[in-house]
Amino acid sequence: MNKNKDRRNFIKKNLMLLFSLPFLNLNLITDKIKKKLKKRKNFIWYLNEQD
Amino acid sequence: MIFQKFEDIDFNNFPVIIFGSGPAGMTIALELEKKNISSIIIEAGDSEYSEDSQELYNGKIIGDNLIDLSSSRLRQLGGTSGHWGGWSKPMEAYNFKKWPIKKETLDPYKKKTCSILDIKNEFKKTKLNNYFNQIEFRYSNVNFAEKYKTYIKKSKKIHLILNCQLSHFEGKGKKILSATCFFENKTKKIQSKYFILACGGIENSRILLWTREKNTNLINKNLPIGEYWMHHPWIVSGIGLINKKKLKKKLNNRFIDYDGPLHFAASKNLIEEKKILSAAIYMNAKEDTKLYKEIIKDILCIAPEYGKKISHLVFKKDLKCGNIFMNLEEPPNKNNKIKLDLYKRDKFNMPIVNLFYKKSKESLLAAKTFLEEFGNYCINEDIGRIAAKENIHKLDDFENIGGFHHLGGTNMGINKSISVVDYNLKIHGLSNLYVAGSSNFTTGGYTNPTFTIIQLSLRLADELHSKINS
User: Fold this and answer.
1) How large is the ipTM?
2) Less Cβ around it within 10 Å: N or C end of chain A?
3) Into how many domains does chain A fold?
C-alpha cells in the first residue's frame, strides 16, 4: 500500500515537473534573446547576442 | 472651356471661383460640375512648366534646411501634381485625434478619390504584432494637367483662366466681395458668391496674410494664419535585411505584395504606449546591388552566426536587403510659420514668403523608438536584422531628403486662437471664403497628403452644393 502511494507520488511529482518544463523552456528562450548593439560604418545594428 | 480674355467672361454666371488648379482646386471644380454648378478655376501659372513662373515661388527659408520653395512646388496647371510621386493612401484614424473631423467623416469620399487618382480602392493592412502593421500604398500616375486639360477645354461647367495671379481678397463685414488679380499687366477685380483658395501649402497662407494686410478689418487679426506649419520628413533612417519568406509564413500568407516594396507602419498601440508621433518605414522593391553586397558583408562581419543562417537566401527574392527609408510626422508648432517678407516683393508687388522652420525632436524620437522596437521585433521573430543611423540612435539629428509636402498654416479647428478654418473649411469669421488643400491639415501623419487633400476637397464641394442650393 505504502509502496504504491510512494510510486503514485513519484509519478505525480515528475508529471508536474514535465508539464512545467515547456513554460520553463519558454522563459529560458526569452532570457536567451539578449539584445546587443554593434556599431559599423555609422550604423547601430540591433542584434541578438548569439548572432 | 479655357478663357483667353477677361472680357469674355460674365462672372455673374459663376457662383464659385477657385484659385489654384492643383489636385484640390481641380477636384472641387470636377465635383461641382457633377452637381450642375459652374465654376471658374484661376491658375497663376501657364499650362506648361516655365522657369519665369517658378521664380515667382521664390521664398526665404529661415532655420533648418528644406528643399527650396521654388523647386518643391509647381506654379502651373495641375499644380504640384506635375511632379508628385503618386503615393496614395487614406490617413490612419489615430492621426485625426486633434482634428475637428474623424476619419469616418472622410471615408465616404474614398471611392471617388480612388477614381480621380486612377487607383484601386483597396488598402490592405496586416498586423505584425501589437506595435506594427504591414501596410499598402497605391501608386497613382495621375498628373492633373495631363488627365484633365482636354476635359476642361470641352467642359461647359468648368472654366479655366491661366496666367492670372491672385493678389488678395476685398470685402465688407463678414463677406468677401471680390478678389484682386493681375492678368496681362492689368489689375482685375473678380466678383462671385463663393471664393475657394486652393493655391497650396505656402501660397494659401501668403494670400491670406496679404489680404489681412490690405484690409485691416476683414480677417480676424488673431487668427494664426501661416502658423503651425508642418513638414512631412522623408529620411534614410537605417539599413537592414528582412527574411520575407519567414515573415510570410508567420503572417499566415497575409503578406502584402511579396515582390513589391515593403511598408511597415506604427500601430496606435506603439504610438500611445511609447508616446511618439506616427512613423512608417519603407524598403524599395528593387534592390541596389552594391548596397545589398555591402549590407551582407557588414552582417557577416558583425553577426557571423546570423550571416551563416541567412547565407542560403543571399540574392534570392526572399531576402529584402537595402536602405530603410522613413516617413515621419511633425507636430504642429506655433513657431514654424509663414510670414510675409517686410522688404522683398515680387513683380506683382506682393511680399515674398519667409518660412521659419525647425526640425522637431519629437519626430527624431519617433524614428529612434520605431527602429528600436522594430529591431526587437526582427530579433524576437527572427525575421531579419536592422540597423539605425548613428545620428538617429543618439537622437542627434536627421537629414530630410524630401521636402515636398507642405502642411498647415490655415489649419482646421474649432478654437479660433489655434485654427484658421472651421469644420467646413470656411475661414473663421467670414461667410464665403473657403480654403482647400494641405494647409488645412490640423496634424500630419506618416501618410502622404494628396489622398486626404482630395477627400477634403470632395467634401468641400458637397458643402458648397448644399450652400448654393439652400
Assistant:
1) 0.88
2) N
3) 1
